[in-house]
Amino acid sequence: MSTAFRGWLSASAPLLAALLWAGHAGADAPGDKALKAMEEAMNRAKTQYYEYEVVNKEPGKDEKKMGLKVYIKGEKRLTEFTAPADMKGTKVLILSPTQMYVYLPAFGKIRRIASHVTDQGFMGLAFSQDDLATQAYAAFYDAQLAADAAAEQTLVATAKAGQTVPHGKIEFKVQKDKNLPTEIKYYNAAGKHVKTETRTTYDCQSNICSPQELKMVDHTKGGHWTKMIRKAWKVNEEMSDDLFSKRSLEK
Amino acid sequence: MQAFAHLLVRRATAWTIVLAVVLLSLASLFFASRVDRDDDVLSFLPRENPEVGVFYDVSKRFGSLDIALVGISTDDALSPEFLTRLRDLTKRLNETDGVGYAMTLTNMDDFVADPQKGGITNDYLVGKIPETPEERAALREKVLSLDHVVGNLISADGKAALLYCFAGHGADQKVLAQKVRAAVEEAFPREAKFWGGAPFISTYIYGVTQDDMRRLAPWAVLVIVLITVISFRDVIGAGLALLSTALGIVMSLGLMGALGVPVDVILGSLPVILFALGSAYAVHILSRYYTLAHEHDRETALVRTICEMGPPVLASGLMTVAGLLSFLLMDIGPLRTFGVFAAVGILITLALSLTFVPAVAYLVKLKGRPAAKGGVVRLHEWLCTLPQRRRVLVGASLGALALGSALFVGKIESRMDNAAFFSKNSPPDQAETFLRDGFGGSLFVQIQVEGDMTDPVVLREIQALADRLVVLPHVSSVNHVGAVVAQINEAMEGDRRIPDTAAKVKLLYGFLEGKKAVTQLVTDDRKKALLQVKLDTSVASETEPVLERIREVASTAITTKYTVAEAKGARKDEVTARARALAAARMRAVGKAFGTPMPEQPDLEARLAAPAKADASEATRAALTRFLGSEECSVELEGPEAIDKVARALTALGSRPDEAKLAEAIAAALDKPVGDTLVTDLADTVDRPLEEIWRRSEAMARAKEFALDAKIAAPAGLKGERFYAAIAAAWMDLDVPALALPPAAGAAGAEPSTSGEQKLAVAVTGLPVMHAGLSRSVASNHWKSLFFALGFVLLLMVGLFRSFWSGLLGVLPIMLTMAVIYGGMGLLGVPLDIGTSMLPSLIIGAGVDYAVHLMVAWSSPEKSPLAEAATTAARRAGPAIWMSAWMVAAGFFVLTLGEARPLKNVGGLTAAAMVAAALATMLVIPLFARKTRYYGDGTRIPSAAPASDASDTVLDTSTSPSLNERGSR
Predict the structure, then answer these.
(1) Do the beta carbons of residue B841 and residue B790 sit within 8 Å?
(2) Is B96's CB within 8 Å of A59's CB?
(3) Which pLDDT value is given to residue A14?
(4) DSSP character for B744?
């Protein structure tokens, strides 16, 4: 073996090892810790109230807009449509991932829907129910710290063995001062990058922060995107449990 | 011409020409490599044709041609192993760029009522792959009971599954087809697969044509090269003739590349057609030059060649160009483009044969082989003089042939169907058979309805039209937006029927947002809807009568001018009668969907008018009990006893109690005051459900009573339950609050704004309609092209020979040729389609060349027998005519060995036409010729170079001294 080659190998060995390790799906302690920290920062609020303008753009079609009011308390979530006019007054109460009650004003009644179809975009949006509902990652994913810069770190989360999760791999770019994601790349089970979500312009009330805009781009659908622009946001205000009851849907 | 000829035989001029051609060729090669391909099948549609125009608009609007279909045949499409692979494939395709949406059994939404907790469970139709035999049996029963799934996603025997792939926005059809095919092949390597839908069919047509061209073009060129080499017996000369043609092709393609014109299926055949048509000019020039070069120095030989052959070559070339330019009269864009570029290609090869070929011949001192001697020319002479020797026999034979052909010409059909585009047993044909056998067909008639699709009154009209259509023979199913709205209404309201208010319909549309399958049925603005009528046949002789019936029904079943009439308004009797008619039609359609024979329409209407006998109170009470105990009821009652009491109390009130009575009944049942919160909350909650439950229970009771009375054998099991639910839903439609009725007699003349009159526009389209429109276009294009080309050629002939009768004589062989070819088409049942409609200009273009050259060569001294002129013409022009005919025939005949149906037809017929044209030229012109010379008087030949009567080609093997002597005088 020539001296030059030995020299090259010696200098390259750490790099090669790093490259090989980068391809390994296993977790590392700093990665898991960072993922837990992010999850904790995302779920600090006891209650939250949002008003959103939702803009949806499918390739080749005009933009469509919707208006939403969202009340969140723990796992419960009540969404009320304020626009378009056809949907106004429609309310969706989610008590668990598969327990959903829909109040349809035109029908004047509540419909219980036990939905198991949560991995598709609903009402034509690029967000799936899973995308919007998932707030917990650490229990389902092992994370690896792929990059760590001064202001931002990159976490690569891969599904834990035996877990059924909507995405095979998720890559987070986390804003270090807030421990919150600014970009989330979703990969399918085969490792193909299928969607990208960006969360921009965080502002905070106390130690609870929320992005002013969320945007999801579906790369498999010709760049179909949906933007959720926050119009109002209240944190930790009193929300009665009655608000999240079937009876309140009819009122 | 003389000045031009003398200019050419200067060294500097010759070099300039060669250099210019080389530079142009290099530039053309560069641009030719940039020619894009275009396999958009819609570009072949003549949009000016009203039927085709509607089809084009509808296809674009609803994306009807953007669906790739893959049928997969297996032993059991519901086996866990098959379903697992199908689910993985569906998921993979849905994550593939360019695929808008992929749908199979495994990701079809399914809504199932939850009898315990209330409401519905929404899951994929195959939410979980079955593991146990019981789970497998349950899944099989569920899937095969769904009438909207069987025949659409799975065959009735469960042995075939269908995959629908909707193209993403702007996706290239070929790329989509490739991606889908690759994924399916990987997932199902062993199963038989069938590729249908426009992306696969257009890719197949384009691919098979290009494959044929790639595979066969070298053979066609080889055959032409061999014929040229054998004829010339000189490789350099043959090479030069072929090189000039090849350069003409490269330059034409280069021009296409420079102008950004993409190559399509038709333009893909341009090289072979140009090779076949364009090589004749260089052949004529070189063969004449070879003869002269052995008698004179090369300058003189070249000058004489150009002076003698230039005008006829130019004239015949221009006639070919005229024939091709007649394509400009066609209303099919790609054919017009083909005509222009083929004409440009011919002009280039013509120019090269008169400049580049002589220039190279001059520079390389080409001499060629001396004239060969043999029996071929004697055969030509025998043939050309036969009409003089056996005038009556030849005349009678040709007359009989023309008459016989004319009889069969009338049998040519311009009817078009898929068989015009692909052969029997080709992959698209196999897919068509598979879809017909397992999925009720692959051919759709589409009916576009314009109106407000959020208005339930309009949706009911669409439903009514669909119900009338589906019971027609050969109609296997009708899909429409009304059915989709009814399906989502079943999920939200519990009944599979169109809801009664616009607010409900609009709300339901919100839940259908983004569903690709829905965009095939209604536009985003809800102003236009499409009914997809599936036919179980694709044979034109069967589809055309069905189409007529469909048109008839479409014009009568739907109220195109209407006012909305309230069920309780002034026209309530008319509304009731119309509601009965619609419900009866609905029931007959349900019967067809479930394979259950139903009574005739009048009988059903009479049964619907009969008063109800069945008591629904017990069913109502049971349903109310279920509702009050379910999670869907927002007020919780304590224990089954309280629930039972309230259910009994509410049932006793009937379907629409007033508010006060409702509260009183609940209060009494619960033993609480009327003002109690529980009582008021419950009264508020059960108000609408009570009405719905009563209505549903009564309808179901009447449905079962009706089936019993009419002795209808309902299907067993889950399918039977769905059958009764569908009949009950039809019964519920008797109580619709409003329907569309024609404007009342008094309002007929009033302004629409005051009478409330509204309109629905109905247009019948789809492939069978488009085929019919295309057939008319093709026939019209064909005749326009034929008359233009023939008229233009006649004019040029008259100009060339300076006599109308001489011009007419020159056109006669082509006319006979066309009569024979069209007679043959009629006899063999070859239809007139896009490909064969190109024949007139090709036959005229190539065939006229022979007549021109024979008539130019027709020459004998004044008052000599015409047989002498015929012999001279046969000796001088015969070999070149036959050589050219065999070259063109061989070139086109090779195309018949491929798979592309249009190419096979055009190739075979053109090959036959070339031989027929050569034969007709050698017989018809001598038969009707009355002059000893038709062209020129020798003054065009330079005095320094006396006119030569020697054979026009080295194939001249004449040994007749007398004729040669006479000819050289």
Answers:
(1) no
(2) no
(3) 43
(4) P
**Phi/psi at B403 (5° precision):** -65, -45
| Spatial strand order in the sheet of B67-73 | B99-103, B160-167, B67-73, B192-196
Strand boundaries in B372-468, DSSP class E = 443-450
d(CA B932, CA B873): 10
Indicate if the pLDDT at residue B941 is higher than 50. Answer: no
Q: Which residue of A has its CA nearest to B511?
A: A123
Please report, rounded to a whole number, the percentage of residues in chain B having pLDDT higher than 70: 93
Taking CA–CA distances from B109, the nearest residue in chain A reads: A117
Whether residue B514 and residue A86 make contact (CB cut-off 8 A), yes or no, is: no
The alpha carbon of residue B654 and the mean position of all alpha carbons in its chain are separated, in whole angstroms, by 58
Beta bridge partners of A235: A48
Chain B hits for A94, Cβ within 8 Å? none
Spatial separation of the C-alpha atoms in residues B344 and B926, rounded to whole Å = 33
- B114–chain A nearest CA distance, Å: 9
Judge whether A250 is closer than 8 Å to chain B, CB to CB.
yes
Interval B847-899: pLDDT, tens: 888 999 899 889 888 888 888 899 988 888 888 888 888 888 887 888 888 88
Q: pTM of the full predicted structure?
A: 0.76
Contact B423, B429 (CB under 8 A): yes
Residue B31 CA to residue B253 CA, distance in Å, equals 8
Considering only the beta carbons, identify the residue of A58, A64, A107 that sits closest to B504: A107
Chain A residues touching B127 at Cβ < 8 A: 116
**DSSP string for residues in B604-617:** HHHHHHSPP----H
Residues of B whose CB is below 8 A from A246: 631-632, 634
Q: Is A24 at the interface with chain B, CB within 8 A?
A: no
Name the residue with tokens 């992306």.
B199
∠B450-B455-B458 over CA atoms, to 5°? 50
The percent helix, strand, coil of chain B (3-state, each to 5) is 65, 10, 25
Q: Which residue of chain A has the CA closest to B504?
A: A106
Residues in chain A: 251
Chain A residue with minimum CA distance to B512:
A123
Q: Which residues of B touch A124 (CB under 8 A)?
A: 513-515
Residue B752 clears pLDDT 70, i.e. is over it: no
> Using a CB-CB distance cutoff of 8 angstroms, which residues of chain A are in contact with residue B513?
64, 123-124
* Closest chain A CA to residue B454: A86
CA-based nearest residue to A227, from A214, A240, A238: A214
Q: What is the rounded distance in angstroms from the CA atom of residue A123 to the CA atom of residue A128? A: 9
Q: What is the pLDDT of residues B114-123, one digit of tens each?
A: 878 888 888 8
CB-based contact B429:B442 (threshold 8 Å): no
Distance CA A58, CA B169 (A): 9
Which residues does residue B151 pair with via DSSP β-bridges, in sequence order?
A: none
- When scoring B122, B186, B515 by the number of chain A Cβ atoms within 10 A, the one with the most, hence best to mutate, is B122
**Strands in B5-82 per DSSP E:** 67-73
CB contact under 8 Å between A86 and B509, yes or no, is yes
Angle at B895 between CA B891 and CA B901, to 5 degrees: 155
A109 neighbourhood in chain B, CB within 8 Å = 688-689
C-alpha to C-alpha distance for B54 and B596, rounded to whole angstroms: 36
Give dist(CA B769, CA B747) in Å, integer.
Answer: 36
Whole-number Cα distances in Å, A131 to A32, A55, A216? 21, 16, 9
Helix, coil or strand: residue B161: strand
Residue pLDDT, tens place only, B530-580: 999 999 988 777 888 999 999 999 999 888 899 999 999 999 999 999 999
- DSSP H or E stretch at residue B807: helix B804-828
B482 neighbors B463 (Cβ within 8 angstroms): yes
Ordered strands of the B758-759 beta sheet: B738-741, B561-566, B758-759
